[in-house]
Specification:
The complex is a heterodimer of chains A (444) and B (147).
Chain A lengths: L2 E8 L2 H8 L9 E4 L6 E4 L1 H5 L8 H10 L3 E4 L2 H16 L5 E5 L2 E7 L3 H16 L3 E6 L2 H13 L6 E3 L5 H5 L12 H9 L8 H7 L13 H5 L3 H19 L16 E12 L2 H21 L2 E12 L11 E12 L2 H15 L6 E13 L14 H17 L34 E4 L2
Parallel strand pairs in A: 2-4, 7-8
Antiparallel strand pairs in A: 1-6, 1-7, 2-3, 5-6, 9-12, 10-11, 10-12
Helix pairs in contact in A: 4-5, 12-13
Chain B lengths: L58 E7 L12 E5 L9 E6 L2 E10 L2 E5 L8 E3 L3 H4 E9 L4
Antiparallel strand pairs in B: 1-2, 2-7, 3-4, 3-7, 4-5, 5-6
Classes of the chains: A alpha+beta (444), B mainly beta (147).
Amino acid sequence: MGGLFGLVDADSFYVSCERAFRPDLEGRPVVVLSNNDGNVVSRSRESKALGITMGMPFFKARPLIEEHNVAWFSSNYTLYGDLSRRVFGTIDRFVSALEHYSIDEGFAHFEQGHAADDAHEIRRTVRKWTGIPVSVGIGPTKGLAKVAARLAKQRPECGGVVDLSGPDVDSYLRDFDVADLWGIGPRYARFLKSGGEENQEQPDLWEASGLQPILRKERVETALELKNRPDWWVRKHLTIKGLRLVWELRGISCLPLEVFERPRKGLCCSRSFGRPVTTMEELGEAIAMHAARGGEKLRRQHLAASHLTVFVSTSRFRQNPEEIYSAAASIRLPFPTSYTPAIVTAAKALLERVFRRGYVYHKAGVFLTDIVLDSERQQSLTDGIDGEQRLRLMEVVDHINRKHGRHTIRTLALGRDNGWEMRRGRLSGRYTTRLGEVLRVRAC
Amino acid sequence: MRGVARGLRVASVHGPDAGERLALPLYLCRVPAGFPSPASDYVEQEIDLGELVRNRLATFCARVEGDSMEATLRDGDLLVVDRSLEPRHGDVIVACVEGDLTVKRLLTEGGRYFLSADNPAYPRLELDGDCDSVIWGVVTYSVRRLR
């Protein structure tokens, strides 16, 4: 059959979504901020060149943003979600199997022989249909496809497509920073690059591996050096996950395409507050909102949860240790549920257990765990599942909220004036999902 | 039990198998009595204007601002724009002019491309360079509220 893996990866996805409807931003530095306008989460090429780093707090980036007239946006997940759906839908027309890896990356099955041609065709079509630029990396394994996609972004001369399915892989891996490898976090990267005494251990195994003793003191700086480490060494220091990655770099596929969405193990709804929150009433409204959002997420994916955790915390950056507090409490629900009023009621009861007066709260949220598919819910003869009436009610509520905006219908526990709602100073239009906010085109 | 089924022992009890479902045929008309409606074979889906959108992945909506496309388009009209279509001579298109998205009519004359306004009060503009990077999408329908 000759199957290859391709990673289709959108370039600066959130920025590209904003640009798709604002062609005047082409060539201009652009950044998108996280929830509450906290940190930089997406940067255009021009913004990266200015020295704005990923995750940089907005207040730190602000001088650069003002000096260089950088266009900045609050994150508009409604828009990004819709464009992501369109990008995946378009890729899907070209490939026999597609795994949605994240909002802006998908692994696809590519046919050997014409993989690069297909990749160019996908790139051209996604750009034309959705306005989103993507890069494609191809390889015999997911790990190599991921390396290839990164190279495709780094090397504009490649035309957005890099194919590592040929024999010259090592010439690419030789220059590839080990810190940029999939799954190698900053801690592992520091460890690998430091070399360290760890390499002096187990001389007998080094001897047996037939590698030069000098290698013991060598640091692992590049992907090629990691690829050539012996299995036992990788496994010892990077665990089985690291070993899998190294095998993938050697062209041995360990990670198959995951085409079917795996049921989630847990679901978290939380957010930092837009302003200081001190009272039980305000925290209660926030927790109720997160609980309601959790119920909505569960229902959208046809899931139900039977374990609920509520957590609250003050800012970690408070000077005085007496001002720092965080706590969590959980409860096992009587049966798996996605019924918003049930989740909200339970969450508010838990909040009463963790709330302490006298603190300035910074963040609160709910975790829903022990998640099962609707279809797998226990078929108990008693009323151990959400009754038909509850499910119908939620269906209607979700429908109305989708149509008229989130929280149009809500439990009273959410309160009326959500002063603690997110700070979103510069939000673009929901161009693709709201009739009242569609793109405006000039005829003048 | 005793006396009713004396001499019989219950070997095992089976609940309904949750994994198995019985599919029942669904009829479009009520069938308790009399003749079935002679129209039932001809029942179709309702008209859904969404069918006018041929490529949902590449179709976007836009709103007209201004009168340069009068009488074809008026201020406030809603446009259905398909980005996957190849623009042809005479198409109403959305194009990017000096950073702004504008709606105009595409005309070709001897290998040259022009953006023309239907309203004669506006000048026409020649496109130079790469046409693909300028044209954002092709307008396939317009929707105007009449009351």
